[in-house]
Amino acid sequence: MLFQKGSAGYPYWLPSLAVLASLISLTPPARGAEAVQFTATRVWPSTLYTRLTFESSTLPHYRYFMLASPHRLVIDIDDFGLSPVLHKLSQQVRATDPFISKIRVAKFDTKTLRIVVDLKQPVRADIFNLKPVANFQHRLVVDLYPKLKGDNDPLSLFLANTPSIHSPFKPGTPSGQPAPFIVMIDPGHGGEDPGAHGLHNTLEKNVVLHIAQRLKKLIDKQPGMAAVMTRSDDHFVPLAMRVAKAQQQKATIFVSIHADAVANRQARGASVFTLSTRGATSAAARFLATSQNQSDLIGGVSRSGDSYLDSTLLELIQHQTLHDSAILGSAVLKQLHKINPLHKSRVERAGFAVLKAPNIPSILVETAFISHPEEERKLRTARYQQQVAEAILAGIQRYKAKHDEP
Hints:
The chain is of the alpha/beta class.
C-alpha cells in the first residue's frame, strides 16, 4: 500500500488506527546484535603508552586475551554490531606507534564483535570501562604499556617507563655547590581530556603544551637550571602520576599550566593558584579546582588510580611547602601582569589535586581565559605563547634568587 504526499509534504490519505496497528505488528523487531554500535573511536599514541578508546551509548560487555607468535590482543564484545567508525579504526594507527601495527575488526559470530590489535612487541594491556562524563558517552578504554616483569599496576608503569631527566647535572652535588634547580612543567589535560575550548574550538590541551615547550627551552638555557615535562605530546597523564613524576625527578618546583574557561565570556585575565588544605579563597577558585580535579574522570584512570592516589598523596602538607608555593606564585603573578591584565590581583588557593606534592612548592598558572574571544585569539599566537613562557621564567628566576640565598 503506497502513501502519496500532498503539496505540503504530508500524506493526504491516512489509514485507520486498526490498519496502523496491523502494520506495526507485522514489522520485524530489530536484531539485538546490530542494535548497538560504537559511535566514535580514538587512538592516542605516545612514547609511554598507547590508548584506544571506543565510545558508545551503551555500556559494552567485553572479554579479552593475548596471543603470541605474532603478538596480538583480542577483544570480544557482546551484542555490538559493526559500524563505519570501526572500519576506519586502523587508519588512525600511526606508523610511528611503538605498540600497534594494525587493527582488524569483524563479527566473530552473530552476537560477538571481535577486535584484533596486531602488536609490535609484548605489552601489558589495561582495559576498563568509563561512565558518561562531560561530553562523553560510555567508553571502553584500552591502555597498552611495555610489558615488564611482575604484575605492575598502570600508574606504576608510568613511572617505570619515564626516562630520567636529560640535564647537565651529574649525580651528586659537590660540597658547597647549590643543588640543581629542576622545574617540573605540567601542561594540563592531554589526550582523551581536551580541557576547555574557545568559541573557535581552540583546545586548552594544545595551547598549554605549546607554552610548556617554549618554557622548557628557556629554562634549559639558564645556568644551574633544567626542566622536565609531565607530558611532551598529546596523551593523558593521571593527576597522581604528574605529582609522582615530580617527586621521582626530585623537582625543586612544580608549575602546572592551564587556560581558564567559564560561562561568562566577559571574564578575562591571568591567575595563579596554590594548594589550600582549608577550603578555597573564593567561589571561583573552588569551581576551578573542582573542574580541574575532574580530569581523571574525563581522561580516564583505571581502578588502580584511586588506591595510588590514596597511598601517595594523603599526607600532611608541610607548612614550609605552602609558604614557598605562595612566594613562587606571587613572583610569577607579578610578571604575568606585565603582559596581560590579571583576573585576580593576588594568589588564590584551592584544593587542586595536581598541587599535592608534600615537599615541592607548586603553583597552577591560568594563562588567560580561553572562553574570552580576544584572549582565545591571543592564546593561539606564537607571540603571546612566548610572552607567557618568558613571564613564567622571570617569576621563577626571582623565586630562585631567594631560594639560593643562604
